[in-house]
Each structure stands twice: as C-alpha cells, then as structure tokens.
Design goal:
The chain has 9 helices and 2 strands, in the order E-E-H-H-H-H-H-H-H-H-H. The chain has helices at residues 38-60, 67-74, 78-84, 88-113, 118-133, 142-149, 156-178, 184-200, 209-227, and strands at residues 2-6, 9-13. The longest helix is centred in the middle third of the chain and has 26 residues, at 88-113.
C-alpha cells in the first residue's frame, strides 16, 4: 500500500500487488552509519519518485498530477526527478510498465499453479480479478484509465496500454485452446472484453457479486464457444 502525504490530505492507494509504504520525507541516516553508495542512493531516489508518482497518478489521474506535486510529495529536488525521468511522459510510462509487470507476475503465478488445467486456471483468474475489483479504493485498471486520458493515438502511454491488451488476448487464447474452443481467438477476445468491462464497471458490482458475475459470465462464454 502506498502512503503519500500531500497538502490536500493523506492518500492510501492499493494497486496490483504492491505493499510498499512511501513516507513523506527522505529517510534519515543514523549518526555513524556509513553513507549509501552513489548508485544505491540514486536507485532509492528513483524508486521513491516512482512510488509517489504512481500513487498520485492512480488516485487522481495523470493529467491532474503535475511534476511539482510529485516533487513536493516525494521530498526530492526537481533536478533529481528530471535526472531519472526526462519528461512527465517518461514517468507515466514507468508507472504503467511497473503496473504491467506486477499484473503479469500475478497472472503467471496463477497459470503456473494450474498448468495443464485450462478450466481451473480461468476460474482462478476470475477469482483474483474479482478480489481486485472488491478493494475499497479500487479505481480501475491503470492501463485503461491512462489510455482514456490521452486522445493522441501516438502518446507513449497508449503504446504501453496497447501492449498490455494484446498480451492479455494472447494469454487468454492459450487458455481458450486448452478449453477446446472451436474458435479460440474469438473466445479470447470475448473473455478480454469481459475482464476489461469488469475493470471499468467495478462500482456496479458488490464484493459478493463480483466473483459470481465474472465466473458465471466466463462459463457462459466458454460453453457457447464449445458448442461452436
């Protein structure tokens, strides 16, 4: 969970599987402790900037969060931010790419536990996705949210989102083939629409409804695909 202090209040933001806590000021050094190596300190600063920006982007939207707010909330100098991220767009892309990595790490973990069992894997994916939707401060899929904020088709953030969606369809097609679907590419597309629709419609589902609706919808799509 991110913990970010800004002038307007205290933000608690859960995204993907992140559990780190970001303090409002730079960490103190105890007297007598040897200084951190330059490379390690640089990595720590970059991580701090990215953690803070990610929490703010997710809570408020990327257009509403300026570089000055990220600098203030992370407690770093603006020159430090630009040393690690040349532009705000670079920072947005880094935020999305980290979200992407964490999403697929969880997906791959589930897939590994259900190797050779496509039906069990699909059910497990619907389960953890439903739990994500049920989080109190869930604000949707970062990939979808950011893509919706930029009309420009060539904006770098939209490219990250496109890759994410294409990867999802490819993963779902592997499952569809394992399920014996007559047209696995079509079933993969349908399941992708179901998942992404759930991400943007989370407020329509109660925590108790989400698993039932996702699983029921997925089973109906699979049954129809098997009938061909």
């Amino acid at each position: 969970m991110f913990l970010v202090m800004v002038k307007t209040g205290l933000y608690h933001v859960n995204m993907a599987t992140q559990t780190s806590s970001v303090p409002a000021a730079a960490p103190s050094r105890k007297p007598g402790r040897p200084p951190i190596a330059a490379g390690a300190e640089s990595s720590e600063v970059r991580q701090r900037i990215l953690d803070t920006a990610s929490a703010l982007f997710y809570a408020r939207g990327v257009r509403a969060v300026g570089v000055d707010l990220v600098v203030e909330a992370s407690g770093v100098a603006k020159t430090s931010l630009y040393r690690h991220f040349r532009t705000k767009d670079d920072l947005i892309v880094a935020f999305l790419e980290r979200e992407d990595d964490e999403f697929w790490a969880q997906w791959d973990g589930v897939a590994a536990r259900h190797a050779g069992d496509a039906a069990g894997e699909l059910q497990a994916h619907m389960g953890w996705i439903a739990k994500r939707l049920a989080r109190a401060n869930y604000r949707g899929c970062p990939q979808i949210n950011v893509a919706a904020e930029f009309a420009e088709a060539d904006h770098p953030s939209r490219e990250v989102s496109r890759r994410h969606m294409q990867a999802m369809r490819e993963h779902l097609e592997v499952i569809a083939r394992g399920l014996g679907a007559a047209r696995p590419d079509e079933l993969a597309a349908q399941l992708g629409v179901l998942i992404n629709g759930a991400f943007v419609s989370a407020s329509l589902l109660t925590p108790r409804e989400a698993p039932r609706v996702l699983l029921g919808s997925a089973r109906a799509l699979v049954a129809a695909a098997r009938r061909g």
